[in-house]
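Tokens help. Consider this.
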Amino acid sequence: MTVLQTALRLLRRRPRGDHPCAALFEPEPGDELVSLDFETTGLDPRRDEIVAVAAVVVKAKRILTSRRFEAVIRPASAPTATSIKVHGLRNRDLADGRPMRAVLPELLAFIAGRPLLGYYIDFDARMLDRAIAGQYRAWLPNRRVEVSRLYYDRKYRGAPPGTTIDLRFASILADLGIPNLGQHDALNDAVMAAEIYLQLIDMQARGARLARRREARVDVAPVGA
């Protein structure tokens, strides 16, 4: 953890006693992260709601699917037709879900002080931050690890002008030879992000890089959950 990250954790004061957020301020386990993914009613973290969550522990060089957290969330408002096309979760699929207020304490206890890993993890962290702030008037202190940034470093850092830059999730999976389990399922996305992470940190340790091609344009693709 950098000096800046340490300072930010200290500025975000640790709640006392048995406060549900206290576990987030535990020391980082040296070899554990949590791969996190939300499915939501949209891509606006200020207004949209979480409808599904999955989190999986990554320890050393293993994805521990036996240590996972999954929940379907019943939102305050029905999902839109647009969001249903993305994740396939209809209003009736969410009817038996629990409200985020009930799920949040369990999710925070599962995450504890581990860094959060994911694809477009800042979006998921902002969604979680809003839930924490609304319920507990606290904020998420956990360090974040963005897999698309790790991929960029292994493939595109120092690339010459004219290099096509493709950071789409499906493209990263294909380039690394990771099977696509089906996107926009929270557990699948969390597991695939963890697989990307493990491959890239192994390449980083070996000093290996990914081959790239030169083309006539630069195409920076958007990232999304």
Notes: Strands lie at 32-40, 50-59, 62-72, 116-118, 144-146. The chain has one domain: 3-206. The first strand starts at residue 32 and ends at 40.
